[in-house]
Amino acid sequence: MDATLDATAGRTTATAAVALADTPAVSDEAGRAGEPRTAVHPAPCPPPPSVTAAAPAGGRPAQAAEAPEAAQASARTEVPGTARAAQASARTEADAPVVPAQARPGGSGRPAEPAQRYPRPVVTELRLSAFGPHRSAVFPLGPLTLFAGPSGSGKSQALQAYEAMAALGSGATLEEAFPEPRARIPERAVPDAERRRGFRLGCTVDGPAGPVRLDLAVQAEPTLRIVGERLSQDGQILLATALRDPGRRSVQAAWLTGGAVGVTRAPLPDDRLGTALLPLRVAGSTTGQRQVLAAAEQVVVALRSVFPCDPRPGRMRTAVPPGEGRLLGDCANLADVLRRTRSECGTRHALLAEAARTGCAGGVVGLDVRIPAGGGPVTAVLDRGPGRPATELARLGAGELRFLALALVLLTGPGVLAMDPAAELLSARQALTVLADGFDRGLDRRQSAELLRLAQLSCGRGHIRLVAEVGEGTADAARDLPGVAVVDLGP
Known about the structure:
A hairpin with a 7-residue loop joins β7 and β8 (250-258). The longest helix has 18 residues, at 287-304. This protein is an alpha+beta fold. The model is unreliable at 1-115 (pLDDT under 50). α9 crosses α10 and α10 (346-359) runs antiparallel to α11. The chain has 13 helices and 16 strands.
């Protein structure tokens, strides 16, 4: 991680934070913007059904304003060595505002009639500036986005970055979000004079408040900590943090206040996402504070509405004790969840049974559960019809079990999944995003096609979004499907 990641005593807090967001977080002479390994070729993906048809391509009002900034960041990425990094830092300090800007006067902000509005907060873009194998990578995310590419191209790393940001938005610490931080440092990253290295990532969250950008610079060595965070909208910095004293476990934060004060400064923990802490620190009594709150809450709602799912067939074969019926990320308690859906949601349970007829071998009449008369572990079974014995899930193949679990996730909602969405917001105003690494792992062509069909139906309604990693076969089958965006990563 280069010297710009440490705000010296001579710099102002906000200036250092801007430098963090705009300059490379690592020194990597081999890394170059636009590397083939991070090339993105997304297929066109239509907006959610509830979005107006008048939206232009891309649908992000801040797109034009972001283009020059992206070009400048790309140019800085190509400057190797400490001397050139210092030059980039100097340019940043000369050109960037030193504090979060005051609230703009009427008529100078976003257009009066924005091109596109998402009724629910959703992540529309993932940025991996320097993360694992990715360098200056920008991935647009639609309602149904599939990552494809050869082994080692960074598909899983992209999903893991999304999952980590979701965990931070839900209040997790850095250690919980990045259990192996050194694996996220870009290859050949050169440490600075203090032996520091790290990574950078960010996202854009669109919703009722408009597009909001969140960017993070994380130090992984020698100590895991957030050294820079920036929350911005339409080029206006709403929150900026920077590490001023490496001896303290805090960063100096400055956020927009407006009114006579202008900017509020205070220390924040260096192991948690500052954006997630803002609703507890900002009163919302001025126009600037309300703008900061609206942006921060939109980001937090979108990041908390994420369910990482990776079904593990080996854990799904055994009977499970009855519980609250909320599906775990590894789907080990599938039988208990089927018990709940059978009794509480007959329509979705019937749809799942219909999908099982396509994805499971042999005739399937329905899905049932066996509950011992005196209580005890619950066993899920496939009903094979009159005169035929039921088949316990323990006898199914790994692909059949993964198929059933993923179909259940796509057909259900947050209330049946072990996740913690924003309780202060109605579920109808939140969009569940499912992250599925190895979406088609162990599945045959018929099962993959059926899951894609279910994903199209569920994501088309706007309540569920899917970001998944798939193999080349599934990617090829999905390229011509309406509403599906395929992100191809190069070798």
